[in-house]
Design a protein that fits this description.
By secondary structure, the chain is mostly helical. It has a single domain, classed as dinb family like domain (Four Helix Bundle (Hemerythrin (Met), subunit A), Up-down Bundle). It is built from 7 helices and 2 strands; from the N terminus they run H-H-H-H-H-H-E-E-H. Strands 1-2 form a two-stranded antiparallel sheet. Helix 2 packs parallel to helix 7. The N and C termini lie far apart (about 30 Å).
Length: about 170
């Protein structure tokens, strides 16, 4: 899938480049859900709250960050698909992590929330018409299309799984 440069900010290029080979956003969201569930379920418990460096997130923090970010990206996709032209602010991911208490929860509990959010994301993206997927709005002071947000969700998850494999396991 080829996206136009006006469909996403340069900041998201890393995520887009990891996910652009997916042909079907909805099918890929479904497949990725199963893969992520298996991935996190197989991480040893003693690694769940590990930080590879002081101030870095734990594996539980990362999982809840993925959940929070997917909610934000889906909300943006919903508003843009409905032709809402109101600019949407960014969000401070570090503040979210600091205030989310992920480490007070189990991986199993976090995965239940992840599956719930992913199910809602799949339903939302299934509902979009081709015209709606092409709509462009403004979030974080940059233009973004509905379909780009789908690829950002996919690529963002791939990025963080890669970081976990490299630095945590």
């Amino acid at each position: 899938m080829e996206l136009n440069k006006n469909e996403f900010a340069p900041y998201y290029a890393t995520y887009i480049s990891k996910s652009i080979f997916f042909k079907d956003i909805v099918k890929s969201l479904k497949e990725q859900e199963e893969e992520l569930d298996a991935f996190f379920s197989n991480i040893p418990v003693e690694k769940h709250e590990f930080r590879y460096e002081v101030g870095k997130w734990t594996i539980k923090d990362i999982l809840l960050h993925l959940i929070d970010a997917e909610r934000v990206f889906s909300y943006r996709a919903l508003r843009i698909s409905r032709n809402d032209k109101t600019e949407m602010p960014g969000f401070e991911e570090n503040d979210y992590v600091l205030n989310a208490s992920a480490n007070n929860r189990t991986i199993e509990n976090l995965l239940l929330e992840y599956k719930s959010v992913r199910s809602a994301t799949i339903s939302l993206f299934t509902s979009f018409t081709e015209e709606q997927k092409m709509r462009i709005g403004t979030a974080s002071n940059s233009t973004v299309s509905v379909r780009a947000l789908g690829y950002i969700i996919l690529g963002h998850e791939l990025h963080h799984v890669s970081v976990i494999k490299e630095r945590y396991l």
